[in-house]
Specification:
Elements lengths: L1 H4 L7 H11 L8 H8 L3 E6 L2 E7 L5 H11 L10 H7 L4 H23 L4 H23 L6
Antiparallel strand pairs: 1-2
Helix pairs in contact: 2-4, 3-7, 4-7, 6-7
Organism: Halalkalibacter wakoensis JCM 9140
Protein name: Transposase
GO molecular function, one term: transposase activity
């Protein structure tokens, strides 16, 4: 699993090992949203009747994993590319993991710049990217583990 997680941009050996050690079994998360919630990267909500407003992230989850994901998310500011260390880490991984990695690079890069173009601060944009990165991590763990898909 650690090698598969290293297929994502911004996640090398120490980050992948730390994620697996901090989270433990990914089987307990049936959906990517549950993993995002565990990490505390989902927006808080203020609701009353028909009115619904989303606020800042909840920060109720594992702060170590949240910090790792936010730091990893900074690498998605750069153009999607498979070169250097990432190319070495992707070598030998199954095609489905490589596909998830490439999809993550494209989607997260676009998301970061889309949020910046809407006037969001870079820190807030990166936090949003980190939340979605958690979803891609969940997808990779589903491919690696023999977990029944819901």
């Amino acid at each position: 699993m650690i090698q598969a997680l290293q297929g994502l941009r911004g996640i090398a050996l120490i980050t992948a090992t730390s994620l697996v050690a901090e989270i433990g079994s990914f089987e307990r998360f049936a959906t990517p949203r549950q993993l995002m919630s565990y990490v505390g990267l989902i927006p808080s909500e203020y609701s009353s009747g028909e009115r619904r407003k989303q606020g800042e992230i909840t920060k109720t989850g594992n702060r170590h994993v949240r910090r790792l994901l936010v730091e990893s998310a900074w690498s998605y500011r750069y153009q999607p590319a498979v070169k250097g260390e990432l190319k070495k880490r992707l070598n030998g991984l199954p095609p489905n993991i490589q596909g998830i990695s490439w999809k993550a690079q494209n989607r997260l890069h676009k998301k970061y710049f889309r949020l910046l173009s809407k006037g969001k601060e870079s820190g807030k944009a990166i936090t949003a990217v980190a939340g979605e990165l958690a979803g891609f991590i969940w997808a990779i763990t589903r491919e690696v583990e023999d977990v029944p898909k819901p």
